[in-house]
Amino acid sequence: MKKGWRGYVSSRAINGQMIPQRVQNLVMRTYAEKSGIRYLLSATEYHIPGSFMMLESLYDGLAGLEGLLFYSMHQLPEMPADRRRLYATLRKAGCGLRFALEELKVETAADAGVVEDALICRALSRRADLSVLSRR
């Protein structure tokens, strides 16, 4: 029997902002209540830049979960191949993926495509911002 949705919070900046873990957990708990899902204690990612050790450690326990609940989609690994591995691992385990801040669900490949499109737009926006700043 699947127990619920395991939370995933970060001790690093998310999309350039430091969000206290307490706030991340509060947002996820509120989202879970509103969505009618059972929210389980969060795993906290290490502060090490580029590290996803805690996220990857969750893969072993997916059989007992309905899915993973992230605070934000901006916690996803930066490398597209790492994100595709996450989506595939969750799909293989019959688990979902949700993002509380954006109120998004990833249940299909098309849903993952929406998240990927948003991340690409963010990356392009950052590049455009940098090019404007470098002209000043």
Report on the structure:
The protein is an alpha/beta fold and 136 residues long. The protein is built from four helices and five strands; from the N terminus they run βαβαβαββα. Strands 2-1-3-4-5 form a five-stranded mixed beta sheet, sandwiched between helices. β4 (96-99) and β5 form a beta hairpin. The longest helix has 27 residues, at 109-135. It is globular and about 45 Å long. The mean pLDDT is 89.
Distance between the termini: 59 Å
C-alpha Rg, in Å?
15 Å
Please provide the count of β strands. 5
Instruction: Report on the biggest sheet.
Output: 5 strands, mixed
Would you tell me the overall average pLDDT? Answer: 89
In short:
With 136 residues, the chain is α/β, with parallel strands linked by helices. It has helices at residues 21-35, 53-58, 80-93, 109-135; strands spanning 5-10, 39-45, 67-70, 96-99, 104-106.
SSE blueprint and pairings:
Blueprint: E1 5-10, H1 21-35, E2 39-45, H2 53-58, E3 67-70, H3 80-93, E4 96-99, E5 104-106, H4 109-135
Parallel strand pairs: 1-2, 1-3, 3-4
Antiparallel strand pairs: 4-5
